[in-house]
Specification:
The chain has 176 residues and is mostly beta strands. The chain contains one helix and 15 strands. Helices cover 6% and strands 41% of the residues. The strands form four sheets. Strands 2, 3, 4, 5, 6 and 15 form a six-stranded antiparallel beta sheet that branches.
Length: 176
């Protein structure tokens, strides 16, 4: 699933200002965050269109790779997904799609799901036109979510923003 809180937006500068106002420093914990490096576009892109669905069959998110900017541009229901504040189409440098288990939320009449992201499972990671088969792992609710390649090494992502989607099955994922 992908989650946003209606009408609530922030950025790193606003979070730093919030901490400064309260005379607190950002956490300096090596367990927090991911590994990043500048990854040039692949000479031959393996993944130029990434699309996945959720429980609603009419909802489909699509990311289209643009080698010139080395970024992915997001569409939703076949229309550019535009940032409400800036009016610009959403972009990212890294798209992570996790396969997770989920179950209907007990007593919820809207059909929402509880998504289980504790444990481990498979993931596909896309950056710089590349596709990486990966494993995700989160040992407990308080542990960081980590991604590893086939050799067990932690993934080094392309420097820039990251978008993580959790879907119930890779049957709902298409890559071109």
């Amino acid at each position: 699933s992908e989650m946003c809180i209606r009408d609530r937006y922030t950025n790193s500068a606003a979070l730093r200002a919030f901490l400064n106002d309260r005379a607190q420093s950002p956490p300096d914990d090596p367990q927090i965050g991911y590994l990043f490096d500048r990854v040039p576009p692949a000479e031959q892109a393996q993944a130029t269109v990434i699309s996945y669905g959720f429980t609603d069959p009419t909802f489909r998110a699509t990311w289209r790779y643009d080698a010139a900017s080395n970024s992915y541009y997001r569409s939703m229901r076949d229309k550019p997904h535009v940032d409400r504040t800036t009016g610009q189409q959403l972009t990212t440098r890294n798209v992570v799609v996790m396969e997770v288990s989920n179950a209907p939320r007990p007593g919820d009449n809207k059909g929402r799901l509880d998504v289980n992201v504790v444990g481990s499972g498979v993931a596909r990671i896309f950056f710089a036109g590349r596709q990486i088969e990966a494993t995700w792992r989160k040992d407990d609710a308080a542990a960081p979510l980590r991604f590893y390649d086939a050799q067990g090494q932690e993934i080094v992502f392309n420097a820039g923003p990251m978008w993580i989607a959790a879907i119930s099955s890779f049957d709902k994922l298409t890559v071109q």
